[in-house]
Amino acid sequence: MEHRHSSAGADQGIREQSPHRTQHWTRHWNHAVGPAVPAAATAGGGAVVGDDHTVHSHGQHAGHSVAMFRDRFWLTLALAVPVVFFSPMFAELLGYQPPAFPGSAWIPPAFGTVIFLYGGRPFLTGGLNELRTRQPGMMLLIAMAISVAFIASWVTSLGIGGFDLDFWWELALLVPIMLLGHWIEMRALGSAQGALDALAALLPDEAERVTAAGTETVSLAELRAGDTILVRPGGRMPADGTVSGGQAEFDESMITGESKTVLRTPGDPVVAGSIATDNSVRVRVSALGEDTALAGIRRLVAEAQASSSRAQALADRAAAFLFYFAAGTGVLTFIFWTLMGSVGDAVTRAVTVLVIACPHALGLAIPLVIAISTERAARAGVLIKNRMALERMRTVDVVLFDKTGTLTLGEPELKEIAAAGTVTATGQDAAQNSVLRLAAAAEADSEHPLARSIVAAARERGLKIPAADGFTSLTGRGVRATIDGRIVQVGGPALLRELGLQEPLALAAATGAWLERGAAVLHVVDGGTVLGAVSLEDAVRPESYQAVRALQARGIKVAMVTGDARQVAHAVAAGLGIDEVFAEVLPADKDKKVAELQGRGLRVAMVGDGVNDSPALARAEVGIAIGGGTDVAVESAGVVLAGNDPRAVLSMLDLSKASYRKMWQNLVWATGYNIISVPLAAGILAFAGIVLSPAAGAVMMSASTIVVALNAQLLRRLKLNPADPG
User: If you average pLDDT over residues 707-726, what whole number do you get?
Assistant: First the structure.
């Protein structure tokens, strides 16, 4: 394997860009390849802007934003306090006398009307939409209850018909509670747009085009296929093309996910988003905009996100049932009591049925669990961006890990040293130490990852690194330096070929074995003599062993996908005990591997960190991004691990199972309350003298909400510790 070097000026990636810079890239991308918003909008109900002002375009929250629910909640909550305090029914329940002054009796109707019209508007419009589409759900159930409560309360306040149906305080509490539930819910929803914006950030906004007079700086929109551009060290490719002059090591990790640089010489292809690390090259542009490989990955992300449409929330399904149940019971109640000759009782009981059927507890059953779950997860270093990921994780059959940067550190680590005539594992052997000292001295001035690893290994062993002069980087071959008057060179097989040298047989046997398992092999040459060699490999995270074993102990299959050679992949997989390996996988094919597993009937959680992982992250039932990964991988995933510990996947699994249990417990309680209280309010046991009055029904409804809230709080007892996954 050839020795490669990188420049200190190499691009540090989009992770360090400011929000302003990212927005700038996004505008540039949209100009060059078309706006990304439509693609996001089709991806499972996306959004058109970010942050709290994100406006959702699909489902029950179409046209709604987090900020809208938040603002309406705080205002209606403030108005609810005087409404509840001055409500005669509430005062009677608690046994106090509200202060009386001119107009005090009209405080509940006045403020209650504002609460209904302002705070209740999202539910009224949402209910009408559900009615038009004949898909009743939470919105229609809430709209029905608050409308009936509003009308009945005004009838009572105006003294019409002599009814005692003062529901102002119930209305004042109901609307803020529902706004709070939907505010919490919307904050838990993820957005597809972020992934596309992060992909846009990979392209520069300008390029240096080569002309007869030299070079000129042009915008990406001005480039044309066939143009020749100059890419300087540390510069990022603005388009796909072919190297036409010079050679350089290219960092393609943002596209391929692999950490090793790749030497590109005249005639070799280079892709948009990759970085020339050490030299300037001239590139003939072959593809721009939507025709680039990067744009192809962008399309895969959008398509994969669209294929993972959100399932309807459990609470909405329960709300649809309760709507038909309450509406049907209300109608039958009115008809029955009217036929019994008691129109007054018919109205009172029908109204009570429709009002108490409103899902106070149901509206908070899932949002509260999600809110507490996300808070508990965050404390364990697991950031949940999509609530459906939390629900789906418990059903996962296989966890598919990307190798580089996920199961491994993504950084080379010195594994073995071989001195001519002796071959053993890294240790304190004198001959080995001599080889390592010389290699570290020659590499001391290099900034290549392999060089840094060699120097770090020498320092860890307490070796004194001699001073070197005349450092020279040999592009694609290695380095050369003068050490104590001796010319020492360090490099891969290409260096030996150039020098016309052969390895000693014992040394060749060792390096051959290293190459077989995919290690990078660097030889240390003194003049015309090969002194020895070192092997460097991508280090496996110590935590990966425990993560794999713990998942398998829970009956979950573990698979690995990588673009590395088969021998490299199988060596890592064998060491970790992984069940299935996908090696030599092209960027677009990682997405296909997820689909392949799903085609076998398996539910997949994908864990990765690179741009090439983003389509797979989006297509999997649960996409989990390593927090140290790229912005696009983070945005494509439903879950982000704040650290780089793969054991945090176990925390996500435990939390998913626990939160799902709480969701069902809350739903059963909230729905069960309605199933019991609605018939009682209808008077089904009136013959036995048992009738649920409006006041008693309201109290029971509030009690049900308290039970749901307390049950959700029990999630806080769950211990999530990635270092102790069990």
Answer: 75
